[in-house]
Amino acid sequence: xAQARMxxxxxxxxLIGVVLALVALGALAVYSATHTRLLExxxxxxxxxxxxxxxxxxxxxxxxxxxxxxxDVIGKISQTIYLAMLGLxxxxxxxxxxxxxxxxxFSIGGIASFQPSELAKIAVIQYLANxxxxxxxxxxxxxxxxxxxxxxxxxxxxxxxxLGTAMVFAGILLGMLFVAGANPKHLGLIIAVALAIxxxxxxxxxxxxxxxxxxxxxxxxxxxxxxxxNVIQSMIAIGSGRLWGKGLFAGSQTQLNFVPAHxxxxxxxVIGEEFxxxxxxxxxxAYFIILRRGLMVAYTAKDEYGMLIAVGVVSMLAxxxxxxxxxxxxxxxxxxxxxxxxxxxxxxLLTNMIxxxxxxxxxxxxxxxxxxx
Length: 373
Known about the structure:
By secondary structure, the chain is mainly alpha-helical.
């Protein structure tokens, strides 16, 4: 308790406040996106809202728990956590539930679902940070182990298949390697090779529906009622919101369910339509503050391990934000990844709250001597 009181004055209250504001906005947007359809079906209009609030509560508990466990202690068992998450990724391929074409979920008593690839992001960040801390990465050979650490879960996730989540892991890896001191030329060469073989990945590794999603990126209207439908409806919704939006519960695209998955992958279109450009700008500014505070945590961390964890969390969030908002605006392929703190979904919200908990944890313990003795 004494340590908890001592930590209170060191909490990053700005970071916490902005995250809570986004979580509250997300719950409101989820309700707006789902209540009309549920009413028409004669179901409880607060069904999705209640579930989201439940996961907000669970996420807050995980957030608080993460703050009070010294991240050095977590680092000592990071390999065990990593191996356990690999086991879950293998298990979900064997007995997992199929959702939207991906076998990526465990059913919990038939009333909830859990996606292990979400929490695997935190496991990978912890273990990779522990491996990279104080390690010389100047040679090309030194990059092999960290790539293996991340490519193993990426391979298992691609088998589900879940391209979007795999892309997030790639973003985490590149961000952490760059800050850990890897030669930028080596990283550039790896990226160039990946781009060079991307046609092979497109033709031989991607499912037909994934190929169509990439093709409609160039012209969504080439398949307006198929692969391009989601993007077209999302852009219409965002554009129709104009400056101040149509008002809460008043978005036609949202309330008439023209935008598929508008409570999950396309939640940004709900905000854009009902709160307009100013609502979208608020979300972008909030994300900018979160990412900037995360980088500040990395800069002030007491050790390299803490710095790399912070960079990993920032890289994870930034990759999600860029891909999700990009696909809502039609400038990124539809990959089915949620928007942090806003999209409906327990696994994602829980993972992101743990990530924020780690940032607050590292920031509170930035003064090495304060916790000695």
